[in-house]
Description:
- This protein is an all-alpha fold.
- It folds into three domains: 6-69, Arc Repressor Mutant, subunit A, CATH 1.10.10; 90-144, Arc Repressor Mutant, subunit A (Orthogonal Bundle); 157-298, Tetracycline Repressor, domain 2 (Orthogonal Bundle).
- 57% of the residues lie in helices and 3% in strands.
- The chain has helices at residues 6-19, 32-39, 43-55, 90-104, 111-118, 132-144, 157-174, 191-204, 211-242, 246-252, 254-262, 267-274, 285-298, and strands at 59-62, 66-69.
- The longest helix is centred in the last third of the chain and has 32 residues, at 211-242.
- The N and C termini lie far apart (72 Å).
Amino acid sequence: MTDSPPYARIVAELRRRIAEGELAPGDRLPSTRQIAIRWGVALATATKALNTLKNEGLIVAEPRVGTVVAAAPATPRPRPPVEPGDELTRDKIVRAAVEIADAEGLVAVSMRGVAAKLGVSAMSPYRHVDGKDELVLLMVDATYGTLAPPDPKITSWRARAEAGSRGLWALYRRHPWLAQYTTLTRPVMLPNLAVHAEWMITALSAPGRTPTQVMNLHVLLFSYVQGLAVNLEREASARAATGLTEEEWLETQAEQYRFYVESGRFPAFSGLMRSFDSDGYDLDLDLIFELGLAALLDGIR
């Protein structure tokens, strides 16, 4: 065993812990960086060890969770009986799909997965929804429908625009997958999204602005909020795929950062990075959102 490559020794140890029940199905494995530190190996070696176990079917990457021990094959659990008044409906299908997307991302949503979550046959949802494309549209519209309208007592255009933008940001915070769907160049008309658009267009329709200016400002503010929000889902997906937190991933880039800081080719970047040596820099997306929103609104006349 001592002649085995380092990654193989890691695989053997983790395989043993899984086989003996020390790591049970659903338990989270150490991250790539934690394995590298514990076994004194490079990150590439730790990654190879985890990939080997994934290929063996012993572990899986769970979105928003990380790498966990795979569930052992089991006999299917009987579905709970349908209670009176608990018939399958389109609303129940949409709610279940939204719950899956909130927990695992939009990519995890499937008609079969929704059926499993609801404890019905795989084909049952098709009695109410034509397929995944229609389901996603219904999910998006239903989620935008939870966006509470701002206080109607707000009268100034800026305060109304701020309230609408903050409400949209909070919605994306609750449902990170939502920002991945809506596009500017190919907009889809949805009733509940139209409610938000109506509020923002009314807010931006100040005296003296042309229709084109109002539409441009509406698109600008919507795209700003959406563009920042897409990073919420991307970070969650990256963390699940790599098993690394944002901080752990940055540590893997430390050598590259040091190269650019010390190269002398980028003095402004180097000076800025060195100013964070003592206290560091914490990326706060909520703070960035408020900073950007204020800058945008300050520039609107």
